[in-house]
């Protein structure tokens, strides 16, 4: 089977999962990847360089750039007569002008990173024109329900590919001595409240509390607040050092996944997060690994008692389940089943 990999956004945060998907698909298919120096090269895929792919900011200019990029990408793979076009990320207004042409020759699957975008009436209008003519691929089981019930996609057109673990801790586990907030998806208001009440956080603990945020710089004893982007390899190093992860997601972070959060669970870390749709679903699945707060006081309580949370006897069972759910072989099989499935019309 011939598969083309296209992208309209080339989001840096999706780099690891995109490379994993390409790797999985090359196990059973001939894969053509159109890119602009974004992906890691793999021996089993055909990489097609497209220097006309340019990312821009601003609503109008970004959409025009996305359309031009996709048009160039499609021109470059059209001659290969691919069976399936896998779009790793997209801008729906721009995609709608080309997708009908794609569907005449190939099946099309779109990986959904953020269903909340369809709360925008314009994006939803363009999405609905084709939502039941393509494969809609979501990154966690819980996201099938809002896609079906809220955004009116037929169940037969929804497929689950569980987000793989993209960050891992290696080495001596006893050297994990950080409780960290590293995620770039951040609700600064929650951090503001934590900062105001930071004196309530215990000082006599055996770990460092690290809070990445947008406003505060502080380094005192076992407490660090820092601003600015954390780049690789430091990001992976801090993840590896952490035995617990704090999350403070924005209000509109609901029907989407966090690769850092999912990786933390599969890595056996304690996850402390504010409430949203994804977190509540994960809490139901892995209750000894996921703790949900609604107030600053609850957040501080979990921070002060985070070492005790590690003694929960159910952690072993929940961790085994989390790792089964994101087993590499199962994920590889799942994505290949999706691209090879036959629609009722075939």
Quick tags:
about 350 residues; elongated; Rossmann fold; 14 helices; alpha/beta; seven-stranded mixed sheet
Order of helices and strands: EHEEHEHHEHEHEEHEEEHEHEHEHHHH
**Structural shape:** elongated
Task: Kindly state the number of beta strands.
Answer: 14
The proportion of strand residues reads 15-25%
Q: Could you name the CATH class of the largest domain?
A: Alpha Beta
CATH topology of the largest domain: Rossmann fold
C-alpha Rg, in Å? 21 Å
Secondary structure class reads alpha/beta
CATH homologous superfamily descriptor of the largest domain: Glycogen Phosphorylase B
Side by side, the strands of the main sheet go 3-2-1-4-5-6-7
Helix content: 25-40%
| Biggest sheet descriptor | 7 strands, parallel
Question: Could you give the topology of this structure?
Answer:
Layout lengths: L1 E5 L8 H12 L3 E6 L9 E5 L9 H20 L5 E4 L4 H4 L3 H5 L3 E6 L8 H10 L4 E4 L5 H6 L8 E3 L17 E4 L6 H9 L11 E5 L5 E3 L2 E4 L7 H8 E6 L11 H8 L3 E5 L2 H9 L4 E4 L2 H9 L1 H4 L5 H11 L2 H13 L6
Parallel strand pairs: 1-2, 1-4, 2-3, 4-5, 5-6, 6-7, 8-9, 8-12, 9-11, 12-13, 13-14
Antiparallel strand pairs: 10-11
């Amino acid at each position: 089977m011939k598969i083309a990999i296209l992208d309209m956004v080339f989001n840096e945060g999706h780099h690891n999962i995109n490379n994993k998907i390409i790797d999985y698909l090359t196990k059973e298919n001939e894969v053509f990847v159109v890119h602009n120096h974004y992906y890691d090269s793999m021996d089993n895929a055909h990489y097609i360089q497209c220097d006309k792919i340019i990312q821009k900011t601003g609503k109008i200019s970004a959409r025009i750039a996305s359309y031009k990029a996709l048009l160039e990408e499609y021109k470059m793979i059209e001659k290969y007569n691919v069976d399936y076009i896998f779009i790793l990320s997209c801008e729906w207004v721009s995609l709608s002008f080309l997708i009908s042409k794609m569907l005449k020759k190939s099946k099309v699957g779109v990986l959904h990173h953020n269903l909340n975008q369809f709360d925008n009436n314009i994006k939803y209008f363009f999405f609905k024109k084709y939502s039941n003519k393509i494969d809609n691929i979501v990154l966690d089981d819980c996201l099938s329900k809002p896609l079906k019930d809220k955004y009116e996609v037929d169940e037969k057109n929804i497929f689950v590919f569980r987000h793989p673990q993209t960050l891992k801790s290696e080495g001596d586990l006893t050297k994990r001595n950080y409780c960290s907030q590293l995620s770039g998806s951040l609700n600064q208001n929650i951090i503001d409240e934590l900062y105001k009440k930071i004196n309530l956080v215990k000082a006599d603990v055996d770990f460092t509390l690290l809070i990445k945020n947008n406003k505060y710089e502080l380094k005192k004893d076992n407490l660090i607040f820092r601003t600015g982007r954390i780049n690789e390899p430091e990001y992976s190093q801090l993840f590896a050092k952490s035995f617990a992860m704090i999350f403070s997601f924005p209000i509109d972070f609901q029907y989407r996944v966090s690769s850092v959060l999912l990786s933390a669970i599969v890595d056996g870390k304690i996850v402390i997060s504010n409430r949203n749709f994804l977190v509540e679903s994960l809490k139901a699945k892995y209750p000894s690994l996921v703790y949900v707060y609604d107030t600053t006081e609850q957040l501080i309580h979990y921070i002060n008692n985070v070492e005790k949370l590690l003694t929960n006897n159910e952690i072993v069972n929940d961790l085994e389940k989390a790792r089964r759910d994101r087993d590499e072989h199962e994920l590889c099989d799942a994505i290949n089943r999706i691209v090879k499935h036959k629609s009722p019309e075939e």
